[in-house]
Amino acid sequence: MTADSRARHRTEQLSPAPASVPRARRLLSDTLADWGVFPDADLEYDLRLIVSELAANSVRNADRLTPSFTLTMVLGDGHIGVGVHDADPRPPAARTPDALGVVHEVVTEADGITEIQRTEDGGKAVWVVLPLGKA
């Protein structure tokens, strides 16, 4: 996931506990408000759903491997990216059948992209980037 020089960036560490899922959604909403970004209702719903699914996936599957997972939000020129990093090296589909099926469907409909990156610590980051002008 890359962003241009005008990008805004926020990263938060969360515990792999169920309470972190609604916390991740609140962090997204608070961050968008802090940045002065007020997406239309459909895009905000999509972003909240994506963050919920990515966070829940880490809570369900990486809790034995990591004391935390990381939620990252990046605002670029005309797009917003959200990513979740955890220490589990397995791709989400290898852990739970169709674990990110809902995310994939939302991203496809919104003309966004999904990317899974290996990280230096042996884990992975799942990134979703959506255009701000489409929902």
Structural features:
135 residues, alpha+beta, disordered N terminus
Topology:
Blueprint: E1 8-14, H1 20-34, H2 41-61, E2 69-76, E3 79-86, H3 92-95, H4 101-109, E4 113-118, E5 124-131
Antiparallel strand pairs: 1-2, 2-3, 3-5, 4-5
Helix pairs in contact: 1-2, 2-4
Strand order of the largest sheet: 1-2-3-5-4
Number of helices: 4
Poorly predicted runs are: 1-5
> Helices and strands: which structural class?
alpha+beta
Question: Can you describe what's shown?
Answer:
The chain is α+β, with helices and mostly antiparallel strands. The chain is 36% helix and 27% strand.
Provide a quick synopsis of the model.
It contains four helices and five strands, in the order E-H-H-E-E-H-H-E-E. The protein has 135 residues and is α+β, with helices and mostly antiparallel strands. Strands 1-2-3-5-4 form a five-stranded antiparallel beta sheet, covered by helices on one side.
